[in-house]
Amino acid sequence: MALIPYGGWFCSRSLKIYITINIAMSETDPILLHNIDTLKGVGVKVSAYLAKLGLYKLQDLLFHLPFRYQDRTQIYPLSRVRQGQEVLIEGRVVQTKILQKNRRMLVCQLTDVSNHSITLRFFHFSSTQVLSFSVGTRLRCFGEIRQGYQSGLEIIHPEYDIITDETPLALTNSLTPTYPTTKGLAQQKLRGLITEALVHLSTVDDAFPETLRQQYQLVTLSEALLTLHQPNPKHSVAQLLSTKHPAQQRLVFEELIAHHLSLRKFREYTRQIKGVQLQTNDTFYHQLLDALPFTLTNAQQRVIAELKDDMLQSYPMSRLVQGDVGSGKTLVAAAAALTAIESGYQVALMVPTEILAEQHLKSFSQWFEPLGLRVGMLSGRQKAAERRDQIENIVLGLSHIVIGTHALFQEAVKFKKLGLLIIDEQHRFGVHQRLALREKGSHAGRYPHQLVMTATPIPRTLAMTAYADMDYSVIDELPPGRKPIKTVVITNTRRHQIIQRIGAVCQKGAQAYWVCTLIEESEVLQCQNAEETLILLKDSLPQLNIDLIHGRMNALEKDSAMQAFITGDTHLLVATTVIEVGVDVPNASLMVVENAERLGLAQLHQLRGRVGRGTAASSCVLMYQSPLSYIAHKRLEALRNSNDGFEIARIDLEIRGPGEVFGTRQTGELQFRIADLLRDQPLLPSIQSAAEIIIEHYPEAIQPLIDRWIQSAEDYAHA
Ligand code: ADP
Ligand code: MG
Predict the structure, then answer these.
(1) Which CATH architecture has domain 74-171?
(2) Rounded Cα–Cα distance for residues 66 and 61 (Å)
(3) Which one of 427, 564, 575, 605 has the fewest beta carbons within 10 angstroms of its own beta carbon?
(4) Which residues surround ligand 2, an ion (CB under 5 A)?
(5) pLDDT digit string, tens, across residues 427-454
C-alpha cells in the first residue's frame, strides 16, 4: 500500500488532497519503474533536461514517442533523389574548395555510382574537415536534398561519415526516430537512452487484460512501442505517424482510457466529499421570472431543474452546461445563483474577460437588485480603495454574488460562505484548476457547487469521455423569434460598398460591429489597427457615431464605450476580438469581420454570435484578403452555410482532417501526448465501454494506466 496523490494529474502541492489507494506495485517489473538516472550517462544535468520533458522513470522513456522518422536503411542513388527528401547517400569526393561569397563556405562535390553528383555545403567548418574531404574520399551523408541556386542539388550541413575499407558502415535496419527534445539535450543522446530503455521492453506491463485487448483488437503494448520506436522500413512513415496505424491506435486508446479513468476516479472522489446543502422555496427565482419580459425556453427550464437537483445532493455539483451562442446561459446561471443565495450562501461568477465581467455586472444588478441582493465585482483594474471595499464585502458575506475575472481567486479573497462557483465561457479550464477553486471555496469540510458554462459545441460522447468528472447538460434551443444570421463572404476590395451599407442600415436605427483582426500575437498591433480603422470609418461615415473598444483601453474607457453602445448612442463599434465571448447587445444586427480568413472556425462562430441576439434579422459580413487558401475558403463557406455550432465543429474537423495537430484553442488544458479528442472522436464510445469493463472486472489495471499516461506522482514530487 502506498500513499500517492489521487490521480496525480489533478493535484498540485497546494491542494493537499491525498487519498490512500491500494495500488499493486508490480513486483515482477521493477526495472522500468526505476529512475532514469540509473542509466549510464544520466547525471544531474541530463536528469534535469529529461525532467523538463516529463521523463523520470525508465518507463517514461518508452512512452516518449517520435514525431517523425528518417529513413537511413538504404542508400539512395543520386540519380533518384529529389528535392525535399531526407536521404542517405554515398559517393566519392571529386572536388573540395573554400568559397568566399557573402560568407565563407566549404563546398564539396560528390559523385556516386550512378554517376550523378551533388554539392555538400558547410558554413561552419574546421581546417581538419577541409583536409579530410580530399579528392577520392568516400563519404556517406544524410540530410535534406535542396535545390541549389545555380549548382544543382545540394545538402547543407549533412551529417556524414568517412568510409574506409577498414570501417565499412552497416546500415540501420529500422527507420530512425526523431523525438521531441529540449534545448541542451541532443537528439542522439535521447535516442540512445530510449534504445537502452527498450532493452527492458519485454517487462513492460501491458495493463490491458488479454481478453479486453482482443475484444478491442489492440496489438500488445510491447509490439506497439517497438513498432513506433524502431519501425521496420516496410512501414511507410506517413502511415506510422497517422493514428490509423495499429501501433498508434493501441497507444491512443490507452491514453484516452487513462485520462477517462482518472476523471472517473476524480468524479468518484467528488461523490464522497460533502457539498454545501441548499434548500430553497424558489421565492427569488419566481420573483426573477415575474420581472422578465419573456418566459424561459423549455431547454432553459430543463437545465435549471437539473442544476437545482444537483445542488440538493450531499456532494458538490460539478456540471458542464453547453448552449450555443445566444441560447440564454446567463439566465440559467442566475437561476442557479438564486438557489444558493436563498439558502444563505454566496455565489462567485468567473469570466474570461473584463468586458464580459462588466456586462454580467449590469445584467445581474438589473435582475438581483430589485430582490434586495447585492452584486459585487472584482477586477484586476479596480483602484485600490474600491478593491478593498469589494473584498471586504466578500469576506463579510455582504455581497451575494461576485463577478470577476481570475482576480476573484487571488490570495486575499476569501469568501465568507461560498455556495456556488460559476465559470462562464471557460470549459477549457483544467480539471485541477477547477479543483483548486473548489478547495479555495471550501469551509467547514463542505465544498461549493460548480457550474461550468460554454458555447463550445461538445458532442455528448466527447463530453462523457473528456469531461467525465462533470455531469453534462445542453441548452438545445434558442429563444423564440431569433432569425438566422445571414452570412456573406466577400473580398476586401469591396470594403467601400460595405461601408456604404453600414451607413444606410445604421441610419435606420440598427447598430453594427466592425471587427479588426490582425495576426493575434501582437495585441499592440491589433489595437493600433483598430484605431486606424476607426479614423478611416469616421472619415467615410461622418453622419454616424463611431466608437472604439480594444484590449489596451483602461476599464473605464472600455466600460463607457460598451455603455454607449448598449444605450444606442454609438451606431458603429470598432472592436478587436476582445468582444468575441459573451458580449450581448441585442440591437446590434450587423457585423463586419476583417481578415476573416485568419481566424479559426470556432472563433468566427463565437464572434458572429454577437449579432442575431434580438428579433431583427441580422447579418455578418466576412471580409477576406485574396488569395484565399483552400482551407480558409472551406471555413468561410462553412460559416456561410450554417449557423449551428455543432455542424460547424463537425466541418472544422473534416477540413483539418485527422493527423493534423490541433492548436491549444481546441484542447486547452487537456494536453494529450498522442491522442486528439476531436480527431479520435470515433474511438470514444469504445473508450467508455472498455473503461466500464476495466472498472468492473480489472480494477487493478487502473492505476498503472493512469500512472504512465498522466503526469504521475513523479511530477508531483518534482513540482
Ligand atoms: P449566451 O448563451 O450566449 O450566454 P445570453 O445569456 O447572453 O446568451 O442571452 C442572449 C440574449 O437572449 C440576452 O439578451 C438574454 O436576455 C436573451 N434571452 C435569454 N433567455 C431568453 C428567453 N427565454 N427568451 C428571450 N430572450 C432570452
Ligand atoms: Mg454568455
Answers:
(1) Beta Barrel (2.40)
(2) 11
(3) 564
(4) 329, 582
(5) 767 777 788 888 888 888 999 999 999 8
pTM of the model: 0.75
Nearest to 311 by CA among 335, 330, 327, 288: 335
Q: What is the mean pLDDT of residues 616-642?
A: 91
Residue 228's closest CA among 74, 88, 64? 64
Determine the distance separating the centroid of ligand 2 and the alpha carbon of 607, expressed in angstroms. 12
Alpha-carbon span 152 to 116, nearest angstrom: 11
Name the 3-class secondary structure at 556: helix
User: Among 625, 613, 421, which Cα is nearest to 510's?
Assistant: 613
Cβ atoms of residues 90 and 75 within 8 Å = yes
Residue 330 CA: nearest ligand 1 atom is 6
Cα 663 to averaged position of ligand 1 atoms, centre (Å): 30
| Atom 17 of ligand 1, residue of closest alpha carbon | 328
Sign of CA dihedral 258, 261, 267, 268: negative
The pLDDT of residue 495 is above 80: yes
Domain borders along the chain are: 74-171, 486-642
- Please give the helix or strand (H or E) that residue 141 lies within, else none: strand 138-144
Going by C-alpha positions, the residue among 585, 592, 489, 484 that lies closest to residue 537 is: 592
Mean pLDDT, the chain, integer: 85
Helix (H/G/I), strand (E/B), else coil: 321:
strand
Measured from the CB, is residue 610 less than 6 Å from ligand 1? no
List all residues 6 or more positions away from 699 whose beta carbon is below 8 Å from its beta carbon. Answer: none
> Which residues in 656-669 are b (16+ Cβ under 10 Å) and which e?
beeeeebeeebbee
Residue type for 5, please? P
Write the DSSP string, 560-583: HHHHHHHTTS-SEEEE-GGGTTT-
Question: Cell numbers of 347, please?
Answer: 455565489
**CA-CA-CA-CA torsion for 427, 432, 435, 441, nearest 10 degrees?**
-90
Q: Is the CB of 614 under 6 A from ligand 1?
A: no
Q: H helices within 354-459, ranges in order?
A: 354-368, 384-396, 431-440
Question: 296 in ligand 1 pocket by Cβ < 6 Å?
Answer: yes
Ligand of minimum distance to the alpha carbon of 615:
1
Do the Cβ atoms of 36 and 50 come closer than 8 Å? yes
| Residue 275 CB–ligand 1 contact under 6 Å | no
Instruction: List, for residues 180-232, the tens digit of each pLDDT value.
Output: 899 899 888 999 999 999 999 988 888 888 999 999 999 999 999 999 999 98
Beta strand ranges found along 611-664 (DSSP E): 619-624
612 lines ligand 1 (CB under 6 A): no
Distance CA 238, CA 175 (A): 12
CATH 3.10.20.600 is held by the domain 486-642 = no
Q: Comparing 147-156, 295-304, 523-532, 663-672, which segment has the lowest mean pLDDT?
A: 663-672
